[in-house]
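Cross-posting from the modeling subforum.

Setting up a comparison between two proteins and wanted a second pair of eyes on the formatting. Protein 1 (sequence, then structure tokens):
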Amino acid sequence: MRRTRMSKSRTLSGLVTFLILAIVFVGSGYLIGKYLLASLLNRPPEGQPVSGDQPKQPTGGGETATVQISTTPLTLYRVQIGAFSTRERAENTAQMAIDKGVPAGVMSPDPLHKVYCGVTSSKEAAQKLAEEALPKLSGIVAEGDNLYVATMDINACDFSLTGDKTVVEQIEKAFSTIDNAVASLIGFWDQYYLKQQISVDLSSMKSDISAAKSSLEQISPASGIQAAHEVALALATELESAISAAIQAQGGDSDGAVQGMTSVIKIIDTFANDLAALQ
């Protein structure tokens, strides 16, 4: 009887041990499968980030094409407040004019650093702008002096881009939109200062520029056409802001008028210099 009870006890003990070992093995297998194997299977190739944003790769791989980009020549009139030997003095003067409610910006030196309060495509509009600005510039412009209206010629710009067909065509389209927007925005300010009925559709222009900017932001061109892409994107960004300010000015906002024309002065300087560098 005692042997039978001992045999049953040993059998029960063996079953318990077996069940414990089985549970341990099953649990270990589950943990190995869930964590170790899963991490190995999901691990990215060596040198690639495990998580977060992936590096932006150049757009390309499609058909190669060459496009010709051409801009329209412009003859403009700049209203000059003053000329200075240093950029710092010119910037300080421009800020003083803005504080008095007059748009102002410093353009590239030639060799003096000149401060302008407006750019138009009509000499008559430039003179009207100067007449409105002069009384506000007491302490900046000497009593009895007038603001100087100078001609500025921007030559036509022609250059070609070769690269992925989709990319270069998007850049070409953006430059065409920018070229038209610059001329139309200057035309708006002509009508604004001449107190004429505004015929320029600023809302449509802003929509076109915003679309061009968005398309440029979605591409990453190869190094050979990257400079053109960067110039187009910078101009589109500045134009978007300048058009928004012009819309405010059209609605009677004097701050919008100051901001809008100040932006135009900067845009024209960038337009003339950066495009010339791309040729």
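Protein 2 (same layout):
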Amino acid sequence: MRKRIGLLTGLGKSMKDLASIVNFLFEVGILAKTPRSGFYFLGSGNQSVAEHIHRVIFIGYVLSTMAPQASQVKVIKMCLFHDLAEARTSDLNYVHQKYAKADESQALSDLSKTLPFGEELIAIVNEYNAKETLEAKLAKDADQLEWIMSLKEQVDTGNSRAESWIPSVIKRLQTEAAQKLAEIIIKTPSDNWWFSDKNSEWRISKKKD
């Protein structure tokens, strides 16, 4: 009986942390319902913050393979957490940011206090925002490349305004790896990955070559 009570007491102490983690996981879910507001001004397309983060993570992984001296794990963590505060602040585009300020530092501070891994979360985001380390530069570039890809997708569906936005975003890129990828992105049709075989026998008659 004493052994069982001891086990329950130990479990009770960890339950507070687990409850905070569950709250965090529910909070992360809000990112899937938070729109990226730049598309309002673009005039076409839509994307949630979670969708944006999803591709940024993959781009960060790719960039880290192109810069093997960087910590791949750290780059991926920065990509994962870089817009986390927007679950509480929402997404402010370049026009919004000129007139309104989202206190992302306070949002992350409040969140981190509830989590057993809160200190690591803050350290990762602070390094990302400082833009000094190679990992931070790669993660920042992953963020910008995702926007370039989103713009290219809109260009390919007929939005000429999107094309005029791309050059200024390319100028923000800091690493050679990202600059090389951007050059290929703007030359590659966004449907090329699945439609490059448009003249194949499969496309015409659904017969495999």
